[in-house]
Amino acid sequence: MENYSIAFFIGLLGSLHCVGMCGPIAFALPLKSSSKSYQLIGAIIYNLGRIITYALLGFVFGFFGQGIKLASSQQFLSIAIGVILIASVFFPLSWLNKLNPNNKIIQLIGSVKQQLGLLLRSSQPFNLLRIGILNGFLPCGLVYTALGGAIATGNTQQGVWFMVFFGFGTLPLMFLAVQLANFVSLTLRNKIRKIFPFLLVLIGVLFVLRGLNLNIPYISPKINIERPFIQNCD
Question: What is the mean pLDDT of residues 156-170?
């Protein structure tokens, strides 16, 4: 269960970043004129949509990690993910956009944003669920971090649960974001976003330490070569 605890705390601590990045969508949910009870229900439906997407991504990347695990050692996989997370802070993925601004991925993201704009006009429950589902597909450094953990599980089922627990971790602040839409300023959101790179480096260092197999409880536990490293947390 410790791997799921890691996922939960990545979501919980990183949800400060969620408020800064995905907060505008949560703030824009068409719930301001609804009753208090429906605002609560709407927030739950929206966040459920996000977690559904995270679970799907966990399945895909858990499967991907399973293939990598068969071709490389668990230690190498953990260290590689950690290095990539740390490097992403100093070499943001956004620079890739400059290489080909018309690529298919950017067009797809634009289509998702367009759909979100249309859905934000209605507060129907199914629309709120679809908003959450589409929101989960938008580029997000915190989600990339969690997907690194899903890959490291080396297992599709565990990848799904890793991302589900990550989603649960983001719930408290994202739920509050919907309720406090009128009280969180743009300045505060920008300050929150500045914290995220430090968190990303911290998580990257943790992955590297786990791969180094230093036999330090919780930080760098002894890896059992018979099982994926993220399962062995004794």
Answer: 93
